[in-house]
Amino acid sequence: MRPAGRAVWPQLTLPPAPAQNGPLVAAPSLASGRTFLAGAVAAARFLPVWLATGALAIVAAIIAPEALQRTSWAFVLPYMTVLALAALGQMLVVMHGGIDLSTPGVISFGGNLIVGVSAGKDHRLALGILVCLALGVGVGLVNGILVGLLRLNPLIVTLAVGQIVLAWGVKYSRSVTNSPSVPLALSNWAARKPLGISIVFWTGAALTVLVALALRYTAAGRRFQAVGANPRAAWLAGLHVRTHVVFAYTAAGALYAVATVLLAGTRVSIDPAFGAAYLLAPIAAVVIAGASLSGGLASATSTWLAAFALTLLTQMLLILGLSTAMQFIVFGAAILVGMLISGDRVAAILGRVLRPTDQAPRAPQPAGANSS
């Protein structure tokens, strides 16, 4: 029982007065130092792909200088743009810990839709492109609902959906498509070269800049990254995690469709292998660029650079005249090396090395303080 007439106040233990250069001065410095280290670790995640691309350009200049000549850029720039856009879509999915294997199906069926709906006529080209875009958005929405809302495995879901879409594309091409060539207006547009560079490249570069700016400088983009980096914390903060997952797959499907339009204009004709090369290459570009398959931060510009490096490597192998088997061996080995030195591994190593170990000293407690 409390003594009568005695007020009871909570006991506050004041810390000892700091010295002249004590904790009050060191605490902000420690916080700024940790902020700098965190920024350095995040930046180091995307550094390897830039160094590797520079090294690849040096090697190309030595053993295959034709790969860096003007005639080679006519192949490298359009095809790296198509791969980069497909990789950007894959990047949005990977940022939320998912994976999308429906890319070849969307590209194959979308290319056949452009040819079939337009019927080779320029005045129907816009309708064919709109149907292709609708296909990409629809497939992405289905993937997003199955993965984000129903919580199904993304690897199995996207592979199954991609196979269904691919099968429908083959059936459509056999029954509807009379001519495999795209309308002349699309091929003529893709052949344009403003400032001496393919318009396909300029289109892809503009879309990449838009994606990068949206992720970095808009509130919706920052929420999108926050949900991918820590879904549980985002859910506790009141963000709709499942909605962001659905949006990631839907936006990815839209980017696949845009890549389909650019690829159709570049290749002019749609063959049975149209889109087959885009099953694993976009995933490889995303991982080499420094993104983590478990979700989190990613860089649109680094993904673009990784797509350029992979396309340049392909061009080098063609110029060197290696057999098809050797091309696959070298290409696969390059992807493995890229994953070994990927930004995710570099960031993890730097995080362990640079993690601060010093802690603020505790104030000495008087004797009997913990007796209760």
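Second entry:
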Amino acid sequence: MKRALLIILFVLLADQALKVWVKLSFYYDESVPVFGDWGFLHFIENRGMAFGMEFGGEAGKLTLSLLRIVAVIGIGYALRRMIHQRVHGLQVMSVALVLAGALGNIIDSTVYGLIFSASTPFQKAVFMPAEGGYAALFHGAVVDMFHFPIWRGRLPEWVPGWGGEYIEFFQPVFNIADAAITVGIALFVVAQRFAPVEHTAQAAVEPPGPSGADVTGPGPKGQA
């Protein structure tokens, strides 16, 4: 439990600290190179799902925020059961990462619209503006900032369907919470290969049942 809580707290603190700094320090759509031409801090806001995927309109935004809250409650309950059942540590770590990432984005979509003014290409956001925030409760936008266009260029003409088209890899802009969710899901898949081994080993050392009978031993009259 302590390890899971530490993971959740670390991810949340790092995610929110970076988001608040970017929100207050960057103009909207401002981009600062940090790793040459393939790594940038690029401030945008996402009203939809992870990695910039949209989920239509104000009603869609409210629905998405509420679904996130329900999902976090379910993930938290599952994590608690996993800890009590002493499942593989890698599984617990993976679910803790997913929970932390989901919580990080929920904070943005729930309260950022209330506590920040709008960010524009010409004006930086203000914390707790006198005129009120830029959106209602549950209608805030998630702050994204990591952009890694590792490769940009045109595909060869011989590539079926996309020949000659300009592409950029990796195009989506994301945040620490998105990364935690992605890593958590990947770890959970990997952990499935270890959990059966651990359960089998545990079953092998379990003591016999209450009767102490050995099912492979002789029968009631000493017959094999």
